[in-house]
Amino acid sequence: MFKEEVNREGSGLAEDLLTPAQVAKRLQVSPRWVRDHATRRAPRIPAVDLGARLRFRRADIEEFIKSQTGLSKKLERR
Questions:
Q1: CA atoms of 19 and 17, how far apart (whole Å)
Q2: Single pTM value for the model
Q3: Which of 9, 13, 55, 60 could form a disulfide with 46 if both were Cys (CB 3.0 to 4.6 A apart)?
Q4: Is 16 exposed, middle or buried (0-12, 13-18, 19+ CB in 10 A)?
């Protein structure tokens, strides 16, 4: 019901939050890697902490990918 209410409001919030498994699939890594990099390891993935659960904003994941792509290009130039 909550998801439907949010979608009716037009904010799209429920659709924009991803689980660690969804992020792992997008990044082609394990869910454990996603959790590690959301909580303590670099490069850090921005996360929404919902107590015992982590969620990720789709826009933050896309920005993370862009930032890492830029980093790999800098390393190639050396």
A1: 7
A2: 0.71
A3: 60
A4: middle
